[in-house]
Structure formats: structure tokens, C-alpha cells
Specification:
Elements (H helix, E strand, L loop, with lengths): L5 H6 L7 E2 L2 E2 L1 E2 L10 H14 L9 H21 L7 E4 L2 H15 L5 E5 L8 H10 L2 E5 L1 E2 L2 E2 L1 H7 L4 E7 L11 H10 L3 E5 L11 H4 L3 E5 L10 E5 L1 H6 L10 E4 L4 E3 L13 H17 L1 H20 L4 E3 L11 E6 L4 H10 L2 E2 L1 E3 L4 H6 L5 E5 L6 H18 L7
Parallel strand pairs: 3-17, 5-6, 5-9, 9-10, 10-11
Antiparallel strand pairs: 1-2, 4-12, 7-8, 11-12, 13-14, 15-16, 16-19, 18-19
Bound molecules: ligand 7TS.
Length: about 425
Amino acid sequence: MDKLDIQKIRQDFPILNQYVNDEPLVYLDNAATTQKPNQVLACLNDYYHQDNANVHRGVHTLAERATREYEAAREKLRAFIKAKSSKEVLFTRGTTTGLNWVARFAEEVLQPGDEVLISIMEHHSNIIPWQEACRKTGAKLVYAYLKDGQLDMLDFESKINDKTKFVSLAHVSNVLGSVNPVKEAAALAHQHGAYMVVDGAQSAPHMSIDVQNLDCDFYALSGHKMLGPTGIGVLYGKEEILNQMSPVEFGGEMIDFVYEQEASWKELPWKFEAGTPNIAGAIALGAAVDYLENLGMDTIHAYEQDLVRYVLPKLQAIDGLQIYGSQDPSKHSAVIAFNLDGLHPHDVATALDYEGVAVRAGHHCAQPLINHLGISSAARASFYIYNTKEDCDKLIEAIIKAKEFFNGTLKIR
Ligand code: 7TS
């Protein structure tokens, strides 16, 4: 598909077709989680209606069917991120779990005095696991800062050195909407013998991903931010590294032989998947990938950039509205955090909800960034494939109304 047929897409998302506070819902909280199309919901339903069984253990027909579908989903995810082998695709609960697993591996690698380099724009999921790994090993957590609302690559380069053992960056910031040059960062990391970790929570849903081209060592994503169910995600890792890593969880499913005092592990990827996995979630995430690929990731990306080019200047034109991240639409993803002079973002978000517009307000799980920006919180509108220019207009209209209301120039209806 060259261009998205948004009205047709919207028909796949019945949840969008509702009124909130007597206004048609405008859902702009996609960075938190996306809505699910009928195809994904039907997949969950069909699985539980027809195929439900545990995987990798039964020989009966349902168990074989469930196993086949679960492994077929892994293959879809492999193709989606262009990994070399499906052994490199580990099912997790989401990005947070993936990053925790990598940080657990880091605990085995890091020595006192080593460094882990991240950026100030990271989500807590890409900060706290590293804080813990550093605390336990005596390594140091080092931050790269910003320039013009984006990662300052000079600062980043100046902070990477032979003590750096891990570099971990968000591919796309969930607050600034900036796209980090993770391929360039991976090359620098490797020059210094460090592992490159990419937090793909906000990139996998919105652009085509090629982990081999990025040459990252790890890449984590969350299914629920890309039309899939909650509780399922993927951690990609290069096969040779995953082979060196110890499993993080132990129990059924991940073992080969178990003796009274010791056990041996299954081969990749199952070595990492202890216990009954989220079978339905994985299969439904496969259906989400089918849905996205049918639209085309490049087409999705182009469409979202079109929305940004449309809405960003309109937001910039609102007197007293401050936008975080780059002010240049070509450098801004469809995640736009903002504040209105003198108003608390929670009040702004509540006023927008009154108009049917759903945005998030708060620290967006990025408190170090929020502190660095010198604010206590922000409102955030984040867009996806089913959002329209009319949604953008409604957002602008609702912000102006909120401003007038709180400034006392507009009376309650
Ligand atoms: N990394 C980034 C960049 C994120 O935006 C998020 C979630 C995560 C990691 C964690 O993902 P999870 O699926 O494991 O929770 N971000 C948001 C958000 O911006 N609003 O709610 C969740």
C-alpha cells in the first residue's frame, strides 16, 4: 500500500468509534499504548476458542497447533526486525523485561571502574536496570546530554571510551520525539569494545527496523505499543552473545536435562523462556505484525511524518505553548510533549479529556529528563496510524479552549 486509507483502518478499531464526555474520542496516547485492531482481537479469540494448549510439551494435536503458531509468530517477529535467525528472538513481557535481562548479563560482565553510557532522555526502564547493575558491580553510569532538544553527539562521543562496556539508547525518545542515531552509536560502541543496546519501544511501532543494519547487539520492543496485546514483547540479541549469556529465569521449558544437583539448558531461544510463555500474546503479536506489514512500515512512517508536519507548526503558533524536543518537524517523531504557560499539565490533560482528546500528562517515566528540562511534568500527544488531520485540529482546538478556560475568558458550557 502506497498511502494509508485511514478511514478503512479506523474501521478495524471499533474502540475509536465512541464518545468521551459527549465528544468523539480522539486517542492521542499511543506512546503509552496503542489500540488493537479486530484482526488482533480475533486472533486472541480464535486461539483460545480453537487451539489453546501448552507449547513444546504435548504430542496431541492442539499442543502441536499451539506450538506451531507460537513458533510461527517468532518467525514473523524475526522477519519484522530482520534478525538473522529466529534463535535471536526471545519472547519477553515487554521492553522493560528485555532491558532487565540485558542488564542482568551486564552484571556478569561489568568490573569496578567500567562504565555504562546512556542518555538523559531515557525511559526509567533504560535507567534503573543500569543503576542496579552499576551499583552491584562498582561500574559507573554515565549520561550524554542534549543539544537543540536532541542527543548531543559530540557529548556522546566525548563520553565513550575504553572503559565503556555497554551503551544503551532509546531509538526514539518517548518525550522529545527525537530519533537517536543508534547505528552511528553502535559503530562507536564497537570501536571501543562495548555492547550496543537499543530500546526500541518507540521505534518498532513506527518505522522499519533492521537490527543487522543497525548492528546493535540487543534490541528490545513491546507488543502493546504496536497493536499487539499487553504482556508480550521481544528481546533481540546476537546469537553469539545470547549463547554466552546465562538464563535470567529458571524452571520448566528452558531445560534440557535436570539432575538432583544440576541442570542443562535448552538451546536458543528457549533457554531464556522459562515457564509457560504468553502463548496467545505472542501469536496475537504476530497478527499485529501482519497488520503493520500489510500497511508497510515505510508508509506508516511517512504518514506519521505528514501528521507531524501538519500539527507541529499549529502547536508552535499557540501563544504560551512550549514544545520539547526539536522544533523542526523533520527531526520530530509523532510524539509531542508540551506545556502551556502557567498551567499544570494535569489540568491541561483533564481539560482536553473534557473535549474527548486523550493525552498523557506527567513525567512520562523519564524523571531525569524532566528534571534536566527544568520542569516538573508535561502533557504529551502521541499519534499512530488511525489518527487523522481532523484529530490534530481537534487537539489544537481543545488546547486553545483549555487556555481560554483557565485564563478565565471562556465560561463552562
Ligand atoms: N522505553 C521507552 C522509550 C518507552 O517509551 C517505554 C514505555 C518503555 C521503554 C517501557 O515499555 P514497557 O512496555 O515495558 O512498559 N513508555 C510509556 C510511555 O511513554 N507512557 O507509558 C509508557
